[in-house]
Structures are given as structure tokens and as C-alpha cells.
Amino acid sequence: MNLNLFRKSFVVVKRICNVRYLYTSKSNLNFTVVNFNEKKENDALEYTSEDLSTVTPYFPQSFNLAAYVNSSETLQNLVHLNVNLSKIEKNPIIVEKILKLNFEQDIKRGLLFIKDFVNGDDIGNFLTKNPLILCEDVEDLEVRVNYLKSKQFEHNEISRIITKNPFWLMFSTIRIDRRLGFYQEKFELSGNEVRLLATKQPRLITYNLQHIQTNFFVIKEEMGFKDDEIKQLLLAKPRLWMMNQKKILERFNYIHNVIKIPHEIILQCPHILLHRNFKVKQRHTFLEKLGRAQYNPTIENFVPLNALFELTDIEFCKKYAKCHVDDFNMFLKTL
Amino acid sequence: MVKYVNAAVAYKTLNGLICVYKPPCVPVRQVQHTIVTNLCRDLNALPDRPQEKRVEIIGATNAPMTVKLVPNYADDPLVCGPRYTHGDFRCSWATHLGLFTSGVLILGLNEGTRLTYQINVARPTRAYKVHGQLGKATDTYFWNGKTIERSTFSHVTRAKIDRIVAHMQSAHQKTMFELSGLHMDSQTTYDLASQGVIRPSNSKLPVIYGLKCVHFEPPNFTLEVQAVNEYEKYLWTLIHDLGVQLKTSAYCTGLQCIRQGKFTLEKALLRKHWQLDHLIDNMDSCRELIEEHEHLIRPKSAHLSV
């Protein structure tokens, strides 16, 4: 900038100089030379005694937070809290909001509030999942926690809910109330059971209700569980309602129609529906090949349903298949 | 099994071929994805390099400034993301296996992708176990299709199936010479043919070198096929044709690749073993195998070699 100005004035001076040279005497020429020397004192290459620490190089727009982290105290503090900024930056809208926050003014109060409910080790994970909670009004958060208190949730239950589901506090009390009501009505739960469900799987409450409806249909109509069995299933494994309906049906289909396990036994061990089908399938076919696939507890050589997914392969072979794990591996290579 | 000092050392060893067991109904792309994801997970769990430092010169420029060495936050894995991600790995297959095929699959990692290309061009023979069932035909020739025909199969005996299988094998010998790229009536072709079976010059048509019934227990039977350039659907149609020629109908119930060139089932890593240490061991043994059998990647003659 400075240099450019200097160049311009230099050209002007030179022109004047040329014109004057044609018409006037030497004295005028001398004047121009002096003028030139005066200009040279403002050269950008010259030393200056000013403080230039505020001058920074050109900083183009960045695509990630790493560019800002060394100069931003807020981001550094978040890193100290174990917040994974690389995950936050995937959503530019959130990043824009986070970058505008000031740690002392905006973040601190919310953080102290959250700290009452979230364990120190989990707070990084919590903020990674839901950084927008820092933009939320603390009064609103208080109201939402008070709502839970008014519904007779214990303090440890509330802290479990908030830790397990970072998005819970983003939902207004009206929405949460409506959703708890939905579950109570749909599954005919008592107050205690609703509380148990919300504490056991808080993510279920804020989950996509359309998805819940679909899975309800799959479990009731396609799998054929009765209403009281569904309730039992919901309280035992609420995650079933958050799974992909095709996957869950495929698993059930294999267990019920291929292995021929009746509904009652599946209800006693609903965990089997949470495991990928190939695991159950390969162990079952192996046991079948050995002639040990006998899941009826009243007959001898009984193998519990747990054996199909629990334990490592080595323990499974030793305990239930009664063979070496190498035989099992050999078998897997024939599938 | 070697314990690695840090992730960088382990990453540098990951150049070469791996031989894995592809489960049925899992696409090859998913196999690649799983393996690379597992490698990233295991590498990121290994001891990391020390975090970079950053020189900071602070203070007013017209007074003596202070120089400080401060930790560089931008280098923290929490800020810049995990050290190893999918972008750090190139992964390619030597020969493609269809969705429903299980068995030996050769993958190249990083520098090994070049080897997979060479193996592909060298056209190694592949051996398959094709499981079929008599008495039923489906529209896709496979178990996933709709049944379009049912028939009796009590007249089929081991001898009959063997005869037809042998007939089918000899019929394929002709395509083998057609694909050699030489004129059928020339002396060169005669010389080549007199020395034994030859490899195809391109990948246009499937060539079957060996066809054998290894298991027969009506209605189920198993064929062992040695072939080049074959693909999933082709092997299914083979079973269908066999059914027609046996004056009944048949469909394919399973397809398993048991050998690719010199890579056999013993070498193949099972899905539960797709982890860093197992994969590195597997890569070592594959490298030894390639060094022993140079012709696998650089064949010198047109003759078929296992």
C-alpha cells in the first residue's frame, strides 16, 4: 500500500521534472531531487519504530477448525475438555455458531450447569455429540431438568439420561412430555415403567417416532409377539425399536423359522436379536453339523441360546462344541 | 507376531497382497471397507508419534520479543482428526468375486495394488466348488430366484453325471484355442497345443479347464471347476445346463472359490481375523509365495501354469 503510493508520487514527480527540465533552469531540477529523497524515508523496506504485532498475514477462509485452534482460547479450552473438534467441524453450521462463542461469557455458565449431571470424563463426549447445547439458554436447560424432577426422576437417573442422550436437553418440555405420553399410551406402561424405560434407553424417547411405529409394526404383526410380550421386550431391550426393521426381521426369521426357537424362549433371551445374523448362523450350523444343536432344556445335551452369541470362539468351542477352535475355523472356510 | 513400536512403522509395512476369506452375501467392496476400517482402528490405537511443537514469537515489535515453544493444538488428534483414515489406504482386488460367492479373495493394499493388476493380467486359474441341487430350476439359476420348474431326478446316477460333466469339459477345450489369438489351422497353434493347455489372451470369454463331480448325494451334488475368466452367473448357468442334459432340472445352491492361482483356502483370513497383526502376518506369507512363484505375476509362456 505504502509502496504503491510512493511509486505513484514518484511517477508524478518524474513527469513534472521532465516538463520543467525543458523550460526552466537547474535550480528547479534540484528541487525535484530533494523532493525525491524526502519520499524515500517512507520506504517499506526501511526500519520503523512502530509496534507492528497487530499486523497479521492474510488469512483465507478455512475448511476446518484446526486453522483457528492455536489462536482461539475457546477452542483450546474445548480441547482440554476432550471435545473432538474434528467431529464437530463436519457440520459447518455448528462450527459457525461455536466460533462466535466466548468461553468466559457464553460457555462457562452452561458448562457448569451440565457438569452437575455429566461425569467429568464423559463431558468431552457429550459436547462432541451435541455442541449446540452451549448456544442454548441456561434457564431453558434448568426448566427441562426441573421437568424431569417434577416427574419424580432421581438425580442419578437424570444424570444418566443426560449423559446417555446428549440431545435430551435440546427438546422442549412440551415435546418430551408428548413423547413420554406416546410411549406410555402405545405400550400401556405404568409411571414407574416409563421412568425405567427413559432411564434405561434415553435415546429411545427422542428417537424418530415414525421409526418406532414401523418397528412396533414389525415386532407385533410380522414377528407375532403379543402385547404383554412386546412390553416385556421393550423394557428388556429398548434398542430393538431403534434398529433397522429389515435387519431385525431377518434375524428373527433365522432364529424362529430356521433354528425353530419359539417366542417364549426368545423372550427369555432377547439379547440374541441384537447380534448380527452371521454370528448366530455360523455357530448354529457348526453345532448342527456336530449334532449338538439341541436348544431344549428338558432334553440332555442342552445348549443355551446364549452360546450362539456370547463368549469368544475359543470358549464357545471348548464349552459347547467340545472341540478345538481350529476345527471351527476349518468349518468356517467351507461356508 | 511382532509388536510394533508406533503406528508409522506398522503403516509402512502395509504394502502388498493379502488373501482373505470372503463370506457369502457380502460384497467385495464391503470386505475392502471393513478391512481398511479395521486397519485404521488398529493403527490409531498404536502409540502415536509425539505431538508437534510450534514456535511462537510474541511481544511488541519495537521491543525485545520473546520466543516460545508451545504445543501445537492443530496437531492434536482431537482437532485434526484421527491419524489414519480411509484416504490413507488404496485397496484393490485381483479378481472380482460375485456377491453370493464365498472364498479366497486377493486384495492389494497400497503398493500391492500394482501386484493385483499384474495377477489379474496374468489370468491365474481359479478353482470353485459349485453346489447344486437336482429336481428344481429357478429363474436366476440360483437359490434366490423363483422356482420355474420341478422335475424328478431318480434316474440320475453318478455314472451319468460323470459322463456329462466330462463331455462339458471337452467342449470347452475349443474355446480355449479360439481365445489364444492365433489362427486355428496354423503350425504355431499346433505347436502350442501339442505342449498342453494354454491361457486365454484376453478376458472376454470364460474358459473351463477342469470339471469334476466331487460329491453326489441326490438331490445334492458338488462340482469342482477350474476356470479362467469365469463369473458368478456363468457358473450358475453351468449347473442349469447340466440339469437339462441330465434330463431333469438343477439350480445352484452355493458357490465357493477354493483356490486362486497359488493362493489356497489355508492362507485365507477369516472375517474375525481381519485385524492389523493378522493382516501383516498374512501379507508376509503372501509375499513369500509371490517370491517363490515369480510366474504368478510375470508368466513367460502362453501355457497354463497353476
From TrEMBL, chain A:
Q: What is its main location?
A: mitochondrion
Task: Show the GO cellular component annotation of the record.
Answer: mitochondrion
Subcellular localization(s) per the UniProt record: Mitochondrion
Could you tell me the Gene Ontology terms of the biological process aspect for this record? mitochondrial ribosome assembly; mitochondrial transcription; regulation of DNA-templated transcription
Question: Any keyword Transcription regulation?
Answer: yes
Which residues belong to the signal peptide in this entry? none
Q: Is Transcription regulation included in the keywords of this UniProt record? A: yes
Pfam family, any one: mTERF
Keyword tags:
Mitochondrion, Transcription, Transcription regulation, Transit peptide
Q: Which GO terms describe its molecular function?
A: nucleic acid binding
Spell out the family assignment given in the record's similarity comment.
Belongs to the mTERF family.
Q: This chain belongs to which protein, by name?
A: Transcription termination factor 3, mitochondrial
Which species expresses this protein natively? Papilio machaon
Automatic annotation (TrEMBL), chain B:
List the GO biological process terms: pseudouridine synthesis; RNA processing
Q: Which domain of life is it from?
A: Eukaryota
- Which GO molecular function annotation, any one, does this entry have? RNA binding
The Pseudouridine synthase II N-terminal domain covers which part of the protein?
99-227
Family the entry assigns: Belongs to the pseudouridine synthase TruB family.
Q: What is this protein called?
A: Putative tRNA pseudouridine synthase 2
Q: What is the lineage of its organism?
A: Eukaryota, Metazoa, Ecdysozoa, Arthropoda, Hexapoda
